[in-house]
Design brief:
mainly alpha, 14 helices, about 75% helix
Length: about 350
């Protein structure tokens, strides 16, 4: 069940959906609870899957598409290597999370959340599958497909995608014979659980705004780009990767990071003999992986807020996975360089 849902969330994020994945965290928590696992697994099912798809940028219009258009590459070209990278991220994520699942199923005291009462601790009772609930599930899947389609077509995350969730919820309620008052009451219940996460998202975004408006970002980009000059090609590509990771701390937004860094690293790639496809790949990897450990990432902090999981607990759980993904990125960049992945 865990690998299945992870690949579902990974494919959704692979087309360019990131912050909207917070809406699926309650589903991840319900899955984890039903499987007698803890809240960390519930969040990780969504976040690990999301990071696997987003970081590789295989089909992402929001990151890969934007960056490629800025350097003159064909739209979403070179997706083969990026898709392989996504599968490697996914396989490694499954390995890490399943190890943890097996450990806590054998001994619940090994859970990093052991003894903590969280908002997801309500008992999950799986109801009988009726014809109406089956229709409700079909409506949910159709809504899911519309979310993916909308992301590919560039629909607004704040209005269009949010509208799909709203309509989906109302239709499922009506199919399941709920009255308008009951639908509204369930909406308020869900909103109550999301409210803390929403507040955390606001604070996380405020940190990014302060760094951007204070011109902190520009100074760091300038000095980091100067340090890459004069390095051998195999080190230059890793320096560019590290550069994007550093910038990601200050600009967690994928499209914002592309706008700030691609005009700098693109000509730098030409000088260093690194193809534009690899330049974009460095940006993809640097932009995505560390989002799952940044304390001001609105997607991460919103998810942890919903699950009532502390940031220190999450970092203790996730750091090995982050390190492993970063190393996979190092290897894939060297492979891309070795095969002269282009066009230049």
């Amino acid at each position: 069940m865990v690998p299945f849902f992870m690949i579902c969330f990974g494919m959704i994020s692979a087309v360019g959906i990131n912050s909207a994945m917070v809406a699926f965290v309650p589903i991840g928590l319900m899955i984890a609870k039903a499987l007698q696992l803890d809240g960390l697994v519930g969040v990780a099912i969504v976040m690990m899957g999301t990071c696997s798809g987003w970081s590789a940028g295989a089909f992402s219009t929001a990151t890969t598409g934007v960056a490629q258009s800025m350097v003159g590459l064909p739209f979403l070209s070179g997706m083969g290597l990026r898709f392989i990278t996504m599968l490697l991220f996914y396989a490694f994520g499954c390995f890490m999370i399943l190890q943890y699942c097996i450990k806590i199923r054998k001994d619940p005291t090994q859970s990093l959340c052991y003894g903590m009462e969280a908002s997801y601790s309500d008992d999950v009772e799986l109801p009988e599958m009726t014809a109406r609930r089956a229709v409700g599930g079909i409506i949910f899947l159709i809504g899911f497909a519309l979310v993916v389609y909308g992301a590919i077509k560039g629909w607004s995350m704040h209005t269009d995608i949010a509208g799909i969730f709203m309509v989906m919820g109302v239709l499922v309620g009506l199919v399941c014979k709920m009255t308008p008052n009951q639908i509204a009451a369930e909406f308020i219940t869900g909103l109550r659980r999301m409210a803390f996460g929403v507040i955390i998202v606001g604070f996380a975004n405020a940190i990014s705004i302060v760094m951007s408006e204070g011109q902190i970002i520009h100074t760091i980009i300038y000095h980091c780009s100067n340090m890459m000059m004069g390095l051998p090609k195999f080190l230059s590509v890793q320096a560019m990767y590290i550069f994007q990771i550093i910038v990601n701390f200050f600009i967690p937004s994928g499209s914002g990071q592309a706008a700030a860094t691609i005009p700098i690293v693109s000509p730098l790639g030409n000088v260093l003999g690194i193809s534009q496809q690899i330049v974009v790949f460095c940006y993809n990897l640097g932009d995505g992986i560390t989002n799952q450990i940044l304390p001001h990432s609105s997607t991460l902090m919103g998810s942890l807020g919903i699950a009532a999981i502390g940031y220190p607990t999450w970092t203790k759980f996730i750091w090995k996975w982050i390190l492993g993904m970063l190393l996979i990125g190092v290897v894939m960049l060297e492979i891309a360089l070795f095969i002269s992945w282009g066009p230049f």
